[in-house]
Automatic annotation (TrEMBL):
Keyword rRNA processing: no
Entry protein name: Thiosulfate sulfurtransferase GlpE
Species this protein is from: Aliidiomarina soli
GO cellular component: cytoplasm
A Pfam family matched in the record: Rhodanese
Keyword annotations from UniProtKB, A to Z: Cytoplasm, Transferase
GO MF term set: thiosulfate-cyanide sulfurtransferase activity
Domain annotation Rhodanese: ranges: 2-90
UniProt cross-references to NCBIfam families, sorted A to Z: PRK00162.1 (NF001195)
Cytoplasm listed as a keyword: yes
Amino acid sequence: MATREVVLADIRDPQSYALGHIPGAVRLSNENLHEFILEQDQQQPVIVVCYHGVSSQGAARYLVEQGFAEVYSLDGGFTSWQQYQPDQVAQNHAGRD
């Protein structure tokens, strides 16, 4: 991530995302999935983030099936990220992202 521009797609629920997420992450849900697929550059790498790195594997496979060239699941999910990168956690404040 430090050397390449990637898209971070956070598939956790809205409340969990608001309480903390990786800076720059887009919350991806059933409501905006179609728009994400249509608008996102499918050649740009995507890292899918969930709670513990399990659900994101299925979501990553789905994005590959939709034509995305390079999709990854974040090992350990946001829980691991927050533990090892506590200074790299953003929160929503007063409805802002």
